Every structure is written in structure tokens, then in C-alpha cells.
Amino acid sequence: MADTSATPAHHNPKGGFINPWPSHQHFGFLSVLMAMVKDWNIRTSLFLPDEKTMIPVLPMATAQLTRPDPTQLQLTWLGHASFLLQANGLNILFDPVFSERCSFVQFAGPKRVRPTPCKVEDLPPIDLVVISHNHYDHMDVNTIRSLGPKPVYCVPLGNKAWLEDLGVTNIREMDWWDEADLQLGVAADTTSPLHGVKVVCTPCQHFTGRSLTDRYRTLWASFCLLFPNGQRFYFAGDTGYRTVRDRAHELTLDTAEDTTPVCPAFREIGERYGPFDLSCIPIGAYSPRWVFSPVHCSPEDAVRLHEDVRSKKSVGMHWGTFILTDEPLTEPPQRLAKALAQRGHTAADFCVMDIGAMLTVPASTTETTVPAPA
């Protein structure tokens, strides 16, 4: 149900939006600049690891992409936070970025270190595009122009006008907790039935801005997709989980972080819409931790988020494709494995994928209960 209060807590009375929880502490541009000067590990952020240790990029399974089983959730990782989800006869893209750089220009800015597994035109006809927020590594001008106006676009508040400027006409602009019941289909013959999905715009802990003057002016979000057969999918978007101000914590990775407040939104999402059959949760772009923790999950945070939303199976994203922060490019899955073991989980519960790889989750014939987090 949509928030019906006159002024929701995440709406800034002065305009724009805020993170309304103690788990978020704002770090301005000067803080990030200070981190780059004092703490940034130039070696890991500028020098790539050996090609053999980087994420493999697999050829797309064309036959499965064009004829997916509509009873399954079929997920293909396109790199970073970009995914193709195929379910209930629908082709759904999340945060699609196919450009070479995630930047306002294509001759400067963070450059892709792993290629996409295909071109936009190689994708099956797209019914729905879900965009979590307006950062360049999640909302890309060139990709949206290539996709064109045919799909429905679901975006958080404040992004409709920007999409309209690109020629997009079918837009659902949503606030946190808004629900949209969509009937979609792009079949060549008009006699084919439409396919349903409920899209829910849900909170996460982040910020927005495509320049230094528009920070927090548009909303950021995660999204839940609920299908008629009962399957549930969660896309966490780009998010932090807590704020770690003590720089020692990122060095020791001890339990001291558990004394800091965590974002309560994820447990609420799990209570309202979980358990989820499949989730995509960010695990990268977290270092220096004392700067990026408010807006980016570490692998340890990601495991806690997985528990909070009551996900049966999760996939790590937001790593290994662009160099945005200074942790080693291949470190996130290593830390994820350790964090899973510490919390009593395995890779069957929370895994990473190769770029271009496909994961399927069959519809369950029995009701599976995922306990609420302790």
C-alpha cells in the first residue's frame, strides 16, 4: 500500500529526498575527496588483476533466452547491476547499462573492465525496464535510447521528465511502497494474451545525482516483483546497510560493526512481501568503508540484507565490472564466502555468477518458509 501520510519521512520538506534512518549518515563531496587523498589505494583502483582472475564473460544461451520456461525465474547477469529476468512470459531488464563508460561522456570516467555478453539488439523483446536510481552506472542514456519507447519503464519519483526527454512515453513513476499491477506483452500477433506482474517500489539506503548540483533531488529505490504463480523476486538496487565511521572496523572486519544501527527497511520489506524466491543484492564498491558504508553494502552487509528480506536464494551484483572504489576487483566474492560461513549459509543460499551466465529457479510445488531474521 502506498504511503498516505501528508509528508512521508523520506520526503525532504525543502525538496528532494532523504534517508530517514539513523543507519545513514551523510558524507559530502569533501569527505570523498579526503578519502581519495588520505586512504585511497591507488594500486588496487588503477592496476587491474591478471585477466585469468577476472570474471569470465560467457556467450549468451540464445535458445534459452528466446524460449524460456514461463514457470521459472530465469536470470541472466549482464554485468554490474544489469540483469535480464524472464518470468511468466515476460522479459524484464534491471538497471541496464551497455555503454563503455558509466559517465556523462564516453571519453572519460569509469570504463568497463569486462565487456557485456551481448548487445542491446541481441536481447529478446523487452517488456519492462526497472531502474533503481539515476546514477550513471544504473541509468544510461545510450542504453535507454537503444531500448526505445516500447517497454514500460518503472522508476522512482523524479525521473519521469528525464525519460520523456529521451522519447520514452510509457512510464510508471513510483514512490516507496507504491504498487503497480501491470499487464504486459510484446508478442508479434495481437491475439497473444498479456502477462501480469505486480511491481512494488520499496526503500533502500542510497542517494542520487547526475551532477554536483542535483544530489538527493530524485528518489532511489529497490523493487519487488510478484508473479501470478506466487514467485517473488527482489532487486535491491544500489544500497548501504549501515554507517561505519570507525576506520578500524574495515581493517579488522570484526563484530564491532554490529553495534551500529542497521537500515530497518529491509526487514520491513521481508515482512510485507517476502519470502523471495530470488534476490539480487549488491556486494561491491565498499572501500574505503568509512566513506562508502552509508550507500554501498559490503559483502558482510549483503548477507545480513539477504536474511532481512527473507530471500531463499540471492545473487551478488555491483562488482567486477567497473572500478568505482578501491577494493581489489575480485575481492567481493571472497569476502562474501567468508561472511556466509560466519552466518551459517552456503553458496547455495547466496552465490555469484559469471557475466552472461544464467540461473533458473523453478516454481515451488510446496510452500517454503524462510524464518524471519533474529
TrEMBL record:
Annotated Gene Ontology cellular component terms: cytoplasm
Coiled-coil annotated residue ranges, if any: none
Domain Metallo-beta-lactamase: residue ranges: 79-296
Enzyme Commission number(s): 3.1.4.54
InterPro entries per record: Metallo-B-lactamas, NAPE-PLD, RibonucZ/Hydroxyglut_hydro
GO molecular function: N-acylphosphatidylethanolamine-specific phospholipase D activity; zinc ion binding
Protein name according to UniProt: Protein-lysine N-methyltransferase efm4
